[in-house]
Amino acid sequence: MKFNTSGRYLISPAKITFRLLILVYLHVSISTFADEPLIIFYKKPATNWAREALPIGNGRLGGMIFGNVFNERIQFNEDSLWTGDENPSGNYETMGAYQNFGDLFIEFTPGNPNHTQVISNYSRALNISSAICTTTFTVDNIVHRREYFASHPDQVIVFRWTADKPNSISGAIKLKGAHNEKTHITDSTLSFEGKFTNRLEYCAIAKVITSAGRIITNENYLKFENCNELIVILGAKTSYTLDYSKGWMSSNPGSALLDQVNSAASKQYKELLERHTSDYQSLFNRVKVNWGTTDPKLKTQPTDVRIRAVAEEINDPELEAILFQFGRYLLISSSRRPGLPANLQGLWNDSNTPAWASDYHSNINIEMNYWPAEPANLSECHLPFFDLVLEMREPCRKATKAAFGNVRGWTLRTSHNIFGGLGWEWNIPANAWYALHFWEHFSFTRDTNFLRQIAYPMMKEVCQFWEDYLKRLPDGTLVVPNGWSPEHGPREDGVSHDQQIVWDLFTNFIEASQILDSDQEYRNKIIQMRSKLAGPKIGKWGQLQEWMIDRDDPNDQHRHTSHLFAVYPGRQITDKYTPELAQAARISLIARGTSGDSRREWVWAWRCALWARLHDGENAYKMIQYLFRYNTLPNLLGNHPPMQMDGNFGITAAICEMLIQSHTDEIELLPAIPRAWENGQVKGLMARGNIQVDLQWQNNKLSQITLLSKWPNECKIRYQNKSTTVSLPPGTPVKLTYDDAFHIIKN
Questions:
Q1: pLDDT grade, residue 744 (50/70/90)?
Q2: Distance CA 494, CA 484 (A)
């Protein structure tokens, strides 16, 4: 591999015909999880931010790694760098946007004045098992290695560069803000600061540490010469605070950030790395999956080549498993306290005018971000979403009262920022959809303190909004007035999407009230209201109607399947309890098609989950393949277009639904397993009731089950048409085998 002085390739990559490259596909049955790490890798640097750069993050601070040899770029973000405010007008154009923070550039000047800039053995990789990005290459017979990670314990990005010969690392470091800030240079530090018109103050600091060699200060950069090792500690912070009563602002962040960076810099690199990996793997290692072995020839290819191979209909089960785990990696990296929730682009954004402001969309997108949090055993990653929603309630109450008059509670528009500012069309049932996430967190964790203190009061207030807002028709039927099937069709009463979400809200509130033995009188009122809600209807061509009026077009391939909310993520429609409605949902889902407007990354994820809930593993699996084929970028990120991250999160949740479902009164095992996953096992997925489930299957049939509960529990499990009830002692795994009946293995 060869570069010219501009860093561009002199030799273009050879074109590969996948049918010739991959001669055979070897299916290998599995019995144990592979010990090897999950790695995505490439044989050339990134040239495009969205398509090729690799994301790292600690939940609050993120970076995109390019892996350039002579001019490395680390573009970085901090999740609270936003323009905008509470936006009382509701005008989308004044809501503000998530901002790019800046770039760290690390230039490489080889020590040999006669060097040829010939690069060999280049590799750029992201190990999602450890959340460490690496770039390795050889120049002038010297092997270089760079490592990058975003540490949650130390709240910084860490960069380390080593070489296998002494005094081989020379170059310069530049820190550049994204808003024309002046960079300040000292003996070993680069920094900048700024302030937006919304009063938000911000700053970034890069601390440079070398072994041997020397650092030379320049007006615009730091120069380093003849070093054995180079370490950069990068931090960024704003004055934002998640507190409406304080106007969302705290003090200038400079002093706190300097302490943070200096604290990290005082530690040895080994300690920083160990703290990072231990923290990250405490979350990531909870879940393991394996449903097949990829052809060894294909497995050695770079990830972009493998993605294109899947588009050519070549099976790559290990890449599918990586995609599943990549969604978990991204959620850990973009949604952890003390940070904000993952937005449309997760945590990563290189623009000051990003698509859709890189905001929070309340009509599917932010909800999809958090679909995998509970089933994929990352419950802690759900918490930043709750934190923001709870703090937004007061400004949302004001906006709701201004728009809808004398109603209790609050709701939202389609978009919002981090200051409680709303924009675009009103998405009236968004409050109930947000409330669903609070209920799901309880349902999976069974944390009654969370239910009593946080979820229940929030759900009750949202019920009160609907008590005031629902419209009663002459026959007594209750409908959501002036609703909207998101981004599709006219505003009118009784839109199916709205009705279904309110039904779920009422159902969840009723259960919560029963669990807490609270508010019996109000619970009875909600039970009566739920019984009067206009319910799902089957239309003239057998479809599940999207509107009260039977106007659905069988040729409509709109991207949203909003009228199927009751199938997933809701629970009003199931094969078991409402088979006729489930069949109507199938007809509607088939009619939406797989072309045109349907080809969006998040669409495949939602439809995969829908097919899984409808027990159709083959169609669910097709959605995974279509996501790879049409809407997956070379770096595995989803492409709407442009790059958008909800599909990455959503497909992880959808695969969970293919493997385990627990939204009814039982845990269903392998409800939508495709033929392609003939043999496999999963470990660490969660079912409602705070029950961990491990599964193994052979020849597309369930073989072993392990259930684990933290406290005494009893659950009903089902596989196909067989079921049994299992008593679970606290903290002790219960193992079962299956061969046309369940058998408990005695310890």
A1: confident
A2: 9
Q: What confidence tens digit (pLDDT) does each residue in 423-442 have?
A: 999 999 999 999 999 999 99
Cα separations in angstroms, 188 against 158, 200, 209, 267, 271: 15, 27, 7, 16, 21
Q: 278 vs 271, 284, 335, 618, CA distance in Å? A: 10, 10, 18, 38
How many whole angstroms separate alpha carbon 489 and alpha carbon 641?
A: 22
For residue 69, pLDDT beyond 50: yes
User: Do the strands 71-78 and 734-738 form a parallel or antiparallel pair, or are they unpaired?
Assistant: unpaired
Q: Give the model confidence (pLDDT) of 588-617 as tens digits.
A: 999 998 887 878 889 999 999 999 999 999
d(CA 543, CA 579): 13
Element (H, E) at 78: strand 71-78
Predicted confidence (pLDDT) per residue in 10-61, tens digit: 223 333 333 333 323 323 333 455 567 899 999 999 999 999 999 999 999 9
| pLDDT value of position 597 | 80
How far apart are the C-alpha atoms of 325 and 284, rounded to whole Å?
8
CA–chain centroid gap for 263, Å, is: 30
Which CATH architecture fits 23-37+288-334+594-747? Answer: Sandwich (2.60)
pLDDT, tens digit, for every residue of 632-658? 999 999 999 999 999 999 999 999 999
Mean pLDDT score, 329-335 = 99
Instruction: Determine the pLDDT at residue 634.
Output: 97
Report the C-alpha gap between 233 and 206 in whole angstroms.
6
Residue type, 192: F
Neighbours of 45 (CB within 10 A): 25
Pairing of strands 288-290, 229-238: unpaired
- What does the pLDDT read at residue 27? 34
- Name the β-bridge partners of 420: none
Listing from the earlier edge strand, what are the strands of the sheet with 39-42? 39-42, 119-127, 132-139, 142-151, 156-163, 229-238, 201-211, 189-195, 184-185
Residue (of 242, 521, 510) closest to 388 by Cα position: 242
Q: List the domain boundaries for the chain.
A: 23-37+288-334+594-747, 39-127+130-284
Q: What is the pLDDT of residue 36?
A: 75
Task: Report the DSSP pairing between strands 713-719 and 667-669.
Answer: parallel
- Residue holding tokens 């809701």? 570
List residues bridging with 709 in a β-sheet: 691, 730
Answer with the residue of higher pLDDT: 251 or 744: 251
CATH number, domain 39-127+130-284: 2.70.98.50
DSSP string, 290-309: E-----HHHHTS-HHHHHHH
